[in-house]
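It is time I had a proper look at our fold encoding. Can you supply me with one protein entry, sequence and fold together? It will help me judge whether the discrete encoding reads sensibly. Leave the record below and I will have a look:
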Amino acid sequence: MNKSEQKRALTAAVRAARAAGRLMRQNLHRTKTVNLATSHDIKLELDVRCQQLIERTLRGEFPRIALLGEEGDSGDVNATCRWVVDPIDGTVNFAYGIPHAAVSIALEIRADADTDPFKAVAGVIYDPFQDELWTAIRGEPARCNGRVIHVSKRAKTSEAIVTIGFAKSLDNLRKSLPYFGRLAPRVRKVRIMGSAALALTYVAMGRFDAYVERGISLWDIAAGGLILECAGGEFWTEPVPGRLKFRMIASNGRLRPRLAIPV
């Protein structure tokens, strides 16, 4: 896929993200239908509806590209090109009426279907409640509402704001809570806000300086990781057990050596 096709894909993804965002905005304060509720998560009927809307919009322009999404896959997601979609990143926030959630859409490609890992080449994240739209194409500057953005220049841990996420398994908590205890006194502030996509964009534009997770899904980070890299940041991941799960340190590129997370 050449640069011109990537730009066309970005335009389609922006249209899809805005359409899903309108649906989210219309339903923030309405009663929501819960498809599944577990101890630490919620799946909404609106998650499914937003993903279907995104898929229809993308297929109108690119009918042959597969889609890998939090609410299910369509097409051959192991082919050389795929969309990676989180229709509502921050569903629990959204379900409780907290206006901190976003639509995340990435386009990933690989040069060789048998050997090369997927790499995001275009990404969109849309916050419909703040009307902030982040976009990136690999090799070009990241933007928020059309304005070029950059990561922060803070290099001192004591001046940094770090956001962190917790998977809720007992094993993860045993390892993450001591890490949290060591980190909190060393940084200016720690924030836990509930949307991975927005956390990555906040690092990308210097609102946060780093974001750390021990277990995060691909659809949560595919678009945001690209946006961060295009804003001059560093996006480090390592696979962990589970389908498309990763450990991650996202930062302005100056802080990662001080933020090593437990295996």
